């Protein structure tokens, strides 16, 4: 990450559309670039990490022509000549097993018994599966049902991956399939980008840490768990900085610590116009920070900016460790040596638990993917028929929590999870999709097609 970002819009400017927010966030992060550090890991340790450079194929995969079926390998040119295939009789002169090629001399009309994966003997290019063969005697076969063409049931050398070609491009997330593909090239390790370090804390006088005694007016911190869960799912290195009360000095101190330790600081709460919203005033002092109002529900407010870190020399490993809050998770303590000198990207989410999660999915997730150097495309919404009427006010994007299901009639429909308040966190648990109703959309009638984003793989 390099050059600092200068916000384009003024603080407290007009309400933005969700599209404008995505675009502005993306261009701000483009000026920073993705994290630069890389590490080389054994394949399985690299699961879900982001590939740091293109991987070229050192070999062809498969490395040789081989059989796709158990059967008999023969010269496909015989099919073009009389007699017709059904009358064709072949002499079986040997057996080729996977890992044990047959190497002998063949004469016209000879065939080889061959197993799936075995190397095709030289001069033979076609395989007839044994189900389509009639055994004549110990040495001969005939084709029982031969709808074959030359080259059938043969897998060509390099048909999966060609030597010298790009097997996986930089930015690819290493899914199980991608790991398998790297292994198929004979590779044992892979170079990936370092994990993105994300510091998280919740804000609010009313927020109780888990295990704390209940008290009047207080609620337990749920955002710290839902948001950190989302961060972990994305493969971020999470620094848990606990809960910060609505107290300006404490907030400032925690933000400064976070900006020295992390690439990204994620917070929840205190960014709307409430009386105790000190985060807002504080952030404006620490760096170029904008407070956006977005035409969406839930998730109307969002703070975005850059915080300059405290000079690294001032933050030694020792004071970085002692600076961590008493209740902070062990991951933060383990990372005390990971002091950064770059400006930290600040993303302040609204406090309401559903708003925080929805804003994360819509804006924080793509931002983090960009900083991680991932080339992953945005999830594609599907069109599904509404099972019930959906109330929708035009002029803002609504993200309603939905359940996509298949009825007895085989039709796929979507209904809401019930009450849609931005504090109803149970709606995020029962949902398997987010119904995305765009700005122009008005009330939805049953049977009308709506866009849904499946949550599988996202949360
Ligand atoms: N006069 C206005 N009031 C509000 C506006 C507005 O535009 N004008 N916006 C509303 C919207 S929309 C949202 S969203 C919230 C966002 O406010 P904040 O980000 O300042 O969040 P808080 O006020 O701190 O908290 C809101 C709500 O969420 C609960 N909360 C906060 N943190 C947590 C946590 N870690 N775990 C569980 N619950 C949490 C908090 O107790 C509040 O109930 O503002 C509206 N108001
Ligand atoms: O954006 Mo707020 O989420 O409507 O509650």
UniProtKB/TrEMBL annotation:
Signal peptide: none
Pathway: Cofactor biosynthesis; molybdopterin biosynthesis
Catalytic activity: adenylyl-molybdopterin + molybdate = Mo-molybdopterin + AMP + H(+)
Cofactor (UniProt): Mg(2+)
Keyword list, A-Z: Magnesium, Metal-binding, Molybdenum, Molybdenum cofactor biosynthesis, Transferase
Its biological purpose: Catalyzes the insertion of molybdate into adenylated molybdopterin with the concomitant release of AMP.
Protein name per its UniProtKB record: Molybdopterin molybdenumtransferase
Lineage per the UniProt record: Bacteria, Pseudomonadati, Pseudomonadota, Betaproteobacteria, Burkholderiales
